[in-house]
Write a structure and sequence with these properties.
Blueprint (H helix, E strand, L loop, with lengths): L3 H22 L3 H39 L1
Helix pairs in contact: 1-2
Length: about 70
């Protein structure tokens, strides 16, 4: 199950990709670069969320092992 960071990261990636495409079509370098930056930030946020989820799952698994 995705956590909040992963969802926000995916959303930022989509927004960034749209800005990139619109900037490319309108020949607007500023908008295109802004989209690239937003997409990159979204990738980082999604990666952080994935790491957080994996750590949480590992802690749950560890708790289950010691609980037996």
């Amino acid at each position: 199950m995705w956590n909040r960071d992963e969802v926000r990261g995916k959303a930022d990636q989509v927004k960034g990709r749209v800005k990139e495409e619109v900037g490319d079509m309108m020949d607007d370098d500023r908008l295109e670069n802004e989209g690239r930056a937003e997409r990159a930030a979204g990738e980082v946020e999604e990666g952080f969320g994935k790491g957080r989820r994996k750590i949480g799952n590992a802690i749950k698994d560890l708790g289950k092992k010691f609980g037996q």
